[in-house]
C-alpha cells in the first residue's frame, strides 16, 4: 500500500511586495491595489486592457483564511472591493463571509493566487 502525506500550504520565504499579474500581452493585469486592515477590505484592480475573469482566483489572508473568488468579470481599468465579512455581492463589492476579522494589522501578508496556484499579487500589512 502507498502512504500519502497531506499536502502543505506554500509559505513565501520572505514577505513579498505588492505585485501585479501579467495578462499574457506584456502589460500588467490583476493588481492588489490596497489592503485596509481597519475596514477589513482588499481592493483588486484590473490594470490591463482586457477583461479578467476572477473565477478560480483566490485571496489568501494568512493563517489558512482563504476566499475563492466567484465567477466575476472585472473590466479593463475597473476595481472590485473584497470585504472579509458578510454581505451581498454587488457589481463593485464581493463578500468573503468570514464571521470575524481576518486581516491582522500587526503583520499579515495578503496574497492573490491564480487558478494554477501561482501568486500573482501580494501585499504585506503591518508588522516588521
From TrEMBL:
Residues 12-128 form the LTD domain. PROSITE patterns: LTD. Pfam families: LTD (PF00932). Residues 1-25 are annotated as: Disordered. InterPro entries: Lamin_tail_dom (IPR001322), Lamin_tail_dom_sf (IPR036415). Residues 1-21 have a biased composition (Low complexity). This is ComE operon protein 3.
Amino acid at each position: 500500500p502507498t502512504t500519502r502525506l497531506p499536502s502543505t500550504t506554500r509559505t513565501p520565504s520572505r514577505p513579498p511586495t505588492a505585485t501585479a499579474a501579467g495578462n499574457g500581452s506584456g502589460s500588467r493585469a490583476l493588481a492588489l491595489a490596497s489592503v485596509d486592515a481597519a475596514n477589513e477590505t482588499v481592493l483588486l484592480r484590473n490594470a490591463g486592457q482586457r477583461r479578467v475573469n476572477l473565477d478560480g482566483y483566490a485571496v489568501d489572508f494568512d493563517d489558512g483564511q482563504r476566499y475563492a473568488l466567484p465567477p466575476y468579470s472585472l473590466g479593463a481599468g475597473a476595481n472590485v472591493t473584497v470585504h472579509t465579512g458578510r454581505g451581498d455581492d454587488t457589481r463593485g463589492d464581493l463578500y468573503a463571509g468570514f464571521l470575524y476579522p481576518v486581516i491582522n494589522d500587526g503583520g499579515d501578508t495578503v496574497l492573490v493566487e491564480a487558478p494554477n496556484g501561482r501568486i500573482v499579487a501580494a501585499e504585506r500589512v503591518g508588522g516588521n
